[in-house]
Amino acid sequence: MRLVLPLSFMLSYEEALDYLYSFVDYSAVRADKYSPQTFELGRMVNFLAALGNPQDRYPVLHVAGTKGKGSVAAMSASALSAGGYRTGFYTSPHLLDFRERARVDGQFISRASVAEIVDTLRSVEPQHPGLTTFELTTAMAFLHFAREQVDVAVIEVGLGGRLDATNVVTPRVSVISSLSYDHTYLLGNTLAEIAGEKGGIIKPGVPVVSAPQKPEALEVLERLAAERHAPLTLAGRDWLYHLVAHDLSGQEFEVWSAGEQDQLNKLRALGHPVDWRPEQLRIPLLGRHQVENAVAAYAALQALRGQGLPLAPEAIRAGLRTVRWPGRFEIVRRQPYLVLDGAHNRDSAEKLATTLRDYFPGRRVTLIFGASSDKDVSGMLAELLAPGTGVTRVILTQAVHPRAQDPEELADLVSGYGLTPEVVSSVGQAVRRALAWAQPEDVILACGSLFVVAEAGAAARENELVSD
Q1: In total, how many domains does the chain have?
Q2: Are the C-beta atoms of residues 356 and 389 closer than 8 Å to each other?
Q3: How far is CA 202 from CA 63, 208, 224, 302, 464, in A?
Q4: DSSP H stretches of helix in 22-174
Q5: What is the pTM of this model?
Q6: Average pLDDT, the chain
Q7: pLDDT digits (tens, 9 = 90+) for 10-46
Q8: Residue 413 domain boundaries
Q9: Pairwise CA distance, residues 44 & 52, whole Å
């Protein structure tokens, strides 16, 4: 039910959130189709025009993708802040606090600012029927960044790209992270269809950077970029990289351009000695896929250099080295290890399983799993319960969210792998149950959705289960 209060009544923070969530929220209610009737940019364009088009008051780095877009955006924002730019960062969903969605130089938007800006929104909203929770929240972030006079904003797409509420921006650089199958009921059943929707953020003449892609997706992105005369940079082709080392504290890797590689090859062919080393970088995020994300972020930051936002190499190094992005193979406790990961489609579950094998070979793993009802649960479990992951126990649970799947419905899927799952109604209870079982050398992995990760992290902190 819509929250209706007199416009003369100043909202509190709690009332502002109630107001925002009184609109249609497609993160909680499944949309039947991704169409102009459901997701329509015209009303967002008109709404922002009524607010003075705050999104046009600062340069933007716009980031879309199926997996890794949040990581790419977080690394980019961290580097821009390290370089001295006052940097806005818009992301969704949040893990623990709604205010995470709009930050300036890492600082969450204040409760007072949320209340004040939402008060402004509700004075304009009645003239723009059909607005959604996400559209209003996006407008709030745009206004916040304008009022804070940011030098640049990193804007993460919410869902898709072509019709996403954030796609009203004209960025300096667009970025597309790894594409895979997710939200297929909205975005299409093939990688080509999904790439077409994600590639909708590519603007005429605006440089676009892509993470490594499967051929079917890359073909679409290349076609869209060519049609819109948008120079395309591809990580793995135009920027090369090599993983040097990894441990539980982070990963070290090298990155260099294809031009540098060509020059190096020519010098070596001529027999000239070469005294050269690629750029050496480190990230605290774990998993090989995060190196791909970091290279995409690095390429995007290099592209921004040509768009009037130069960044010194030491700023990029510092930003990547210090980035924080919770819930992505995040180790929040040791002895036993408690790992939180927001993987929620088959591709990300495969990457998670690979990371589990890389970092914890031979360890016994207790899997705490819960997912949204519209996800490829059987595909995720096929990856997580495959040989070599070490999973010997499974606890099925359910986040407090309208789209959370009943864990009882997942029991038969797990049983098909020769495991007898336990069903625990709440995520917090599941965490405590797993810790009661575990030996100091064991691993507990909570995953399946960001909502499960958020509740597992909250439960660990509330019960002082987090280790330093």
Answers
A1: 2
A2: yes
A3: 10, 7, 7, 18, 45
A4: 41-50, 69-82, 111-124, 133-147
A5: 0.92
A6: 92
A7: 899 999 999 999 998 765 555 554 454 556 799 999 9
A8: 330-462
A9: 12
